[in-house]
User: Which sequence fits this backbone?
C-alpha cells in the first residue's frame, strides 16, 4: 500500500507536533507480522511440549509384553497380569498394567447384530423446486439389518 501526498503531509505534521510519536509507531509489512505470529506459535508449542520430569516412561518391551499377555488371556484382569509379571521379576505398578491393558471388544458385526433394534438411520436431503425454493426432507429407518 503506497502512501498518498495527504498521508505524508499528515505524518509530517504529527512528527512536528509530537516527535516522541516516532518511538511508538513502527510501520511493518504484513509478511513481517505473519512471520512474528508464526515464530510466537512455534515458541509456545515448543514450550508446551517440553519434557517435564515425573515418572520415567515404561520401556516399550514391557508395554508390549503387557499387551501380549492381555490378548493371550482375555479373562485376566490387571491384578492377575501384575502378579504374573512380578513372578517373572518385572516390577511395575498395577496401575501401569491397567493402563497398558486393552479389554477385548466386540467387532462391528457383533455390535450391529446385538443392537440392531436400537439403531436408527437418518438421512436429511434437499429438493430444489421449480420455483427455486428448497424443500428439506428427513427419511428415518429403524431396526437396521446389515448382517444376514
Assistant:
Amino acid at each position: 500500500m503506497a502512501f498518498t501526498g495527504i498521508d505524508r503531509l499528515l505524518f509530517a505534521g504529527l512528527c512536528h507536533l509530537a516527535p516522541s510519536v516516532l518511538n511508538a509507531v513502527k510501520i511493518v509489512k504484513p509478511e513481517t507480522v505473519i512471520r512474528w505470529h508464526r515464530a510466537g506459535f512455534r515458541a509456545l508449542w515448543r514450550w508446551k511440549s517440553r519434557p517435564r520430569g515425573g515418572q520415567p516412561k515404561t520401556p516399550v518391551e514391557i508395554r508390549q509384553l503387557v499387551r501380549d499377555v492381555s490378548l493371550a488371556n482375555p479373562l485376566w484382569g490387571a491384578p492377575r497380569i501384575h502378579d504374573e509379571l512380578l513372578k517373572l521379576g518385572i516390577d511395575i505398578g498395577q496401575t501401569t498394567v491397567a493402563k497398558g491393558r486393552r479389554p477385548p471388544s466386540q467387532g462391528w458385526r457383533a455390535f450391529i447384530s446385538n443392537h440392531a433394534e436400537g439403531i436408527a438411520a437418518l438421512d436429511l436431503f434437499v429438493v430444489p423446486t421449480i420455483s427455486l425454493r428448497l424443500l428439506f426432507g428427513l427419511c428415518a429407518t429403524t431396526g437396521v439389518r446389515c448382517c444376514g
